[in-house]
């Protein structure tokens, strides 16, 4: 059996954790740069604030209904997520972390255990230990577990757990799930299936296998088996190494100065290098891109990117920054209001299998030791405590976070103080 | 037929209430057919402390003629249970609870080892040596008995009825 445990309105729940006055009040959390609503409390949903509504479009509802608004506080959410996952780990031998707020739990080896009771215990423990409400869906496959979780949220609100253990319960669940709501079915496939008379997941599993094979991809065939209770999606207890890495963010304010954008780009290149080192790989080429805001019709528009092949595959921060700046110098043009820049790392290879170059002047052994030391210090003492001077400190381009809450669990200066 | 569950007794009612396990889901139980009392209907009771959990179990067996949720704090429901427990009643009540898991394991090994082996040979692609030990485990899912068979990374969940027929 597979279980999918998912935190309810995770970002909002994290904000409520340290601000109990928000209970019962509509709350939304905005995406990067305070752009769109990415997490909404049930009260905010009831007011009609849809997922991904731009903040400026919801302003009237926000002001009229006293909606509490927060900027994304990923430091806080990441730390709370760690605590939630650790609580899950205490219940099952293995788990697969699927995203910041959900995980698949392996329940195959839990003999003589009532899984419904276990689901209830998990829910209770996470609420008690961390303070976050969760829903649990248990079923014979990953896709059905995901569906069971959704079913628990919508139809088993009183306990927030659903164990689709037998045929009746699975059929009941399939009958109320629209094809578009099946995990892995996108918008276009949903339209195609509906056009062919498949409205619910139950309709889909009654489709002839031949029809599925003829009209759908291998991925949907796999999903078809999963819906029938045959596990077809393998466990990924360790996330597979990424094939491409991209670091890019919109600026909090439009940028015009070359030096400020260069500082931002250096930081993104450094972040790419760190991600490469974390998965023990190097990249053979990088892409640097730069763009203005397409929606500002009053501004002149400019968008360019450049791909640079590296002489030797690397994951060293200094080298990555050097190449990124080289590309940036080529594509940058004065006189534009820039919104965004970024760095992408391509052709990723394991760091033990890099092809050395005869003309390479870099002392790679020394650089590797320096990077290891830098990473260790940054892990112990805080993110980017040691950095290259070109990365700067001011970060004038930093994201807009007007409604940011404190880092309650990760910064000693921001820990809540209780007066007794 | 393998019957691992306890008979439900009057004294359990107050104990369950004290433990806050006041919801009982009922369903037909066919594993305890008694030739001397063929007219009696066997009912299996499963206790829950939350109505939601009892409701899931109820949904799983709602096609059963005797499926219902009994709330022990409801006087009418309690009176009905007491009536069903009376010696003259037409029902025998069982509780989805085993006294000793070890004993159940022992009974499984003694009585159903050969059936399990036959089932594996006939219904699966597993080829088991005579020397290879099979460690089955029992699972009760919404009142229905299943056998869990494991070999290497593979796991099979089989209805106990199918093992008995093998």
What does this structure look like?
The complex is a heterodimer of chains A (420) and B (166). With 420 residues, chain A is α+β, with helices and mostly antiparallel strands. Chain A contains 14 helices and twelve strands. Chain A has helices at residues 10-17, 42-46, 59-64, 74-89, 115-129, 142-155, 167-175, 187-195, 201-205, 209-215, 218-227, 258-278, 317-331, 364-381; strands at 2-7, 27-30, 37-40, 68-70, 95-99, 102-106, 134-139, 161-163, 245-255, 281-292, 303-314, 338-350. In chain A, the strands form three sheets. In chain A, strands 5-6-1-7-8 form a five-stranded mixed β-sheet. In chain A, strands 9-12-10-11 form a four-stranded antiparallel β-sheet. Chain A has a three-stranded mixed β-sheet with strand order 3-2-4. The longest helix of chain A is centred in the middle third of the chain and has 21 residues, at 258-278. Chain A starts with a strand and ends in a 39-residue tail after the last helix. The mean pLDDT of chain A is 92. In chain B, the strands form two sheets. In chain B, strands 1-5-3-2-4 form a five-stranded mixed β-sheet, with helices on both faces. In chain B, strands 6-7-8 form a three-stranded antiparallel β-sheet. The radius of gyration of chain B is 18 Å and the shape is elongated. By secondary structure, chain B is α+β, with helices and mostly antiparallel strands. Classes of the chains: A alpha+beta (420), B alpha+beta (166). Chains A and B meet through α5, β8 and α7 of A and α2, β6 and β7 of B.
């Amino acid at each position: 059996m597979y279980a999918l445990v998912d935190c309810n309105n995770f970002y909002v729940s994290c904000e409520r954790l340290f601000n109990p006055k928000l209970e019962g009040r509509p709350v939304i959390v905005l995406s990067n740069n305070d752009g769109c609503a990415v997490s909404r409390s049930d009260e905010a949903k009831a007011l009609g604030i849809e997922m991904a509504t731009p903040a400026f479009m919801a302003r009237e509802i926000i002001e009229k209904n006293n909606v509490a608004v927060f900027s994304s506080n990923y430091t806080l959410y990441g730390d709370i997520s760690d605590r939630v996952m650790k609580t899950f780990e205490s219940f099952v031998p293995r788990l697969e972390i699927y995203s910041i707020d959900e995980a698949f739990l392996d329940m195959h080896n839990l003999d003589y255990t009532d899984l419904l009771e276990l689901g209830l215990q998990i829910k209770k423990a996470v609420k008690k230990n961390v303070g976050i409400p969760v829903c649990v869906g248990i079923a014979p496959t990953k896709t059905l577990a995901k569906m069971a979780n959704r079913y628990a949220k919508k139809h088993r609100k009183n306990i927030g757990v659903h164990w689709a253990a037998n045929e009746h319960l699975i059929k009941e669940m399939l009958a109320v799930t629209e094809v578009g709501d099946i995990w892995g079915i996108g918008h276009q496939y949903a339209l195609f299936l509906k056009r062919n008379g498949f409205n619910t997941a139950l309709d889909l599993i009654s489709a002839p296998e031949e029809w599925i094979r003829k009209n759908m991809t291998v991925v949907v065939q796999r999903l078809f088996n999963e819906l029938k209770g045959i596990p077809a999606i393998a466990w990924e207890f360790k996330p597979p190494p990424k094939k491409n890495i991209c670091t890019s963010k919109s600026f909090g304010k439009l940028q015009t100065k070359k030096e400020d954008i260069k500082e931002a780009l250096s930081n993104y290149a450094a972040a790419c290098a760190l991600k490469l080192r974390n998965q023990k790989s190097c990249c053979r080429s990088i892409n640097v891109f730069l763009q203005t805001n397409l929606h500002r019709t009053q501004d002149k528009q400019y968008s360019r990117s450049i791909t640079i092949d590296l002489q030797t595959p690397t994951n060293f921060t200094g080298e990555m920054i050097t190449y990124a700046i080289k590309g940036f110098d080529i594509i940058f043009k004065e006189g534009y209001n820039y919104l965004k820049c970024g760095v992408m790392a391509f052709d990723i290879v394991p760091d033990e299998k890099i092809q050395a170059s005869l003309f390479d002047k870099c002392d790679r052994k020394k650089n590797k030791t320096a990077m290891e030391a830098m990473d260790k210090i940054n892990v112990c003492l805080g993110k980017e405590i040691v950095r290259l001077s070109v990365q700067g400190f001011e970060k004038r381009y930093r994201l807009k976070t007007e409604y940011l809450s404190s880092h309650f669990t990760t910064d000693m200066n921001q820990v809540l103080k209780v007066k007794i | 037929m393998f019957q691992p569950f306890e008979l439900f007794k009057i004294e359990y009612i107050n104990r369950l209430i004290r433990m806050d396990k006041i919801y009982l889901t009922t369903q037909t139980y066919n594993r305890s057919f008694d030739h001397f009392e063929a007219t009696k209907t066997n009912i299996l009771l499963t206790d829950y402390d939350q109505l939601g959990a009892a409701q899931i179990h109820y949904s799983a067996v709602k096609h059963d003629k005797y499926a219902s949720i009994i709330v022990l704090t409801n006087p009418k429901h309690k009176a009905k249970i007491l009536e069903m427990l009376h010696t003259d009643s037409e029902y025998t009540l069982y509780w989805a609870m085993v006294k000793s898991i070890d004993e159940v394991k022992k009974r499984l090994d003694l009585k159903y080892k050969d059936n399990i082996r036959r089932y594996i040979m006939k219904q699966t692609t597993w080829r088991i040596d005579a020397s290879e030990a099979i460690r089955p485990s029992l699972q009760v899912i919404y009142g229905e008995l299943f056998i869990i068979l494991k070999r290497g990374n593979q796991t099979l969940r089989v209805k106990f009825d199918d093992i008995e027929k093998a």
